[in-house]
Amino acid sequence: MRMKILFLYSKLSAKRYKSKTILQGNDFNYVAVHCNLAPYELVWEIAREANIQFVCEPMPFVYNQHTAPSQHVLYFYSGDEHLPKTWLIQNHGSTGVLTISKPPVDYWMVWEGDIEYDLGDFWISLLKDKGLAQMAYLYPQEQSNKIIWGFDLPYLIPNNNV
After folding, report:
1. What is the mean pLDDT of the chain?
2. All residues at 6 or more sequence positions from 91 whose CB lies less than 8 Å from its CB, including other chains
């Protein structure tokens, strides 16, 4: 099973962002993850089950909310540069959450949406079938279009797109 997952992940398109001045809509896909593991435990389990390495960003992701900035733990996929950029971010931060939902989301798996293959099934299968998460689902496109914090994540948008 591990080789099958690695094969699927390695077959992803190398299609990258085209240089543009203004991003329109939402260029990313989101999987909502409901999980009671600590962030380091979750990425360790992903590495153990699928041999996919995530690295913790040394500086937390800061999301400027209406009241006060909130800091969130952020991991990024460390691997083949031709694969889509992928991040795991904790929804609960130092002073608030990125997205309010019921039931509350614990983590967001975010990746580039401009690819030929759908990673949603891959991540959902890995997280749910291996028992890493109690619930994982692809966030609906009409809802993810409203997510603005995704555009603030470091390394999501290359410098030539700003």
Report:
1. 78
2. 72, 97, 98, 99, 104, 105, 106, 107, 108
Confidence band, pLDDT 50/70/90 cuts, at residue 32: very high
Number of domains in the chain: 1
Q: Is residue 39 part of a domain?
A: yes
Sole residue written with tokens 């094969």: 7
Residue 40 counted as domain residue: yes
Q: CA neighbours within 13 Å on the CB side: how many for 6?
A: 12
Q: What is the CA radius of gyration of the chain?
A: 15
- The residue segments making up the domain with residue 80 are 25-105+119-155
Q: What is the pLDDT of residue 154?
A: 61
CA 77 to each of CA 9, 54, 70, 89: distance values in angstroms, whole numbers, following the listed order: 12, 4, 22, 11
